[in-house]
Design goal:
Blueprint: H1 5-23, H2 27-42, H3 45-63, H4 68-87, H5 106-116
Helix pairs in contact: 1-2, 1-4, 2-3, 3-4
């Protein structure tokens, strides 16, 4: 199983829970679920596990409202939280894997050297004064 699959499962569970809470006229909890989708995708490691634990508590508390859609939403939120607690360390952080290093641009490197206070036309290395003396 790919490492990113549990991440997307957790996010989809939260989207489904938001729909269930919206149908149960529990709009604040639905908005919390939608905000949690963004948090799940942005966080990693321990922070994602803490969010998962909070979502378990929210899911259990929301399931006690009595409406059958709220119960279904609470189960979905708790399942997403449990998935984050158990597999949160192995889930990737979105936006970190697809970044490519910038290609070296000689002109940009010259400007950056000037900003640092270095002379880009000087052939000696920064601590090497023996060749100039």
């Amino acid at each position: 199983m790919k490492a990113s699959r549990p991440l997307w499962i957790a996010a989809l569970l939260l989207v489904g829970a938001a729909g269930a809470f919206w149908g149960a006229d529990s709009v604040p909890v639905a908005l919390l679920c939608l905000a949690s989708v963004a948090a799940v995708l942005a966080l990693s490691g321990v922070a994602r596990r803490v969010l998962g634990a909070l979502l378990i508590v929210v899911g259990i508390a929301a399931a006690f409202s009595g409406h059958w859609l709220a119960i279904a939403g609470g189960v979905l939120v708790a399942a997403s939280g449990a998935l984050q607690v158990t597999l949160g360390g192995r889930m990737p952080k979105i936006g970190m894997g697809g970044q490519k290093p910038r290609s070296a641009d000689p002109e940009t490197d010259l400007w950056r050297a000037l900003e640092r206070g270095d002379d880009p036309t000087d052939d000696t290395k920064p601590g090497d004064r023996s060749s100039n003396e």
